[in-house]
Amino acid sequence: MESLNARNAIIRLGGDIRTARKKRRIPMAEFAERIGVGEGTLARLEKGDPGVRIGTLALALLALGELDRLEELLDPGDDRTGLLLDRNRLPKRIDRKRAKTPTSPDALDDDDGMVF
């Protein structure tokens, strides 16, 4: 892995998974069995090995009751950069002459035949 920031984030995530497992008092062997991997793979996950499958991460989060965190990881509604890019793509001006009028055939393409 070339990015030190990305590497550190993965190591921190692995440590957080280990801490969450320990807070729940789940032994390593039992947790590995719950997520369907060997103890060696679990150890690699908890050390932040970037080669561990994302499916293993998802199962670990599920077993910890935290799968929703993965589901919300890059929610488009919370993507600040994406939202900023969308905002920057908005037209500066709207030319009324070029705008579709409610009576034009293109404006009636709504599934219900309604014009908004």
Keywords:
116 residues; mainly alpha; 434 Repressor (Amino-terminal Domain); 53% helix
Compressed to H and E, one letter per element, the order equals HHHHHH
Question: What's the β-strand tally?
Answer: 0
CATH class of one domain: Mainly Alpha
Tell me the quaternary state.
Answer: single chain
Please identify the structural class as seen in this structure: mainly alpha
Low-confidence stretches: none
Q: Note the overall shape.
A: elongated
Polypeptide structure, described:
The protein is mainly alpha-helical. The chain has a domain at 4-71: 434 Repressor (Amino-terminal Domain), CATH 1.10.260. It is 53% helix and 0% strand. The chain has helices spanning 4-23, 28-35, 39-47, 54-63, 67-71, 80-89. The longest helix has 20 residues, at 4-23. The protein is elongated and about 70 Å long. The model has no long low-confidence stretch (mean pLDDT 87).
In short:
With 116 residues, the chain is mostly helical. The protein has helices spanning 4-23, 28-35, 39-47, 54-63, 67-71, 80-89. The longest helix has 20 residues, at 4-23.
Q: Secondary structure elements and their pairing?
A:
Blueprint: H1 4-23, H2 28-35, H3 39-47, H4 54-63, H5 67-71, H6 80-89
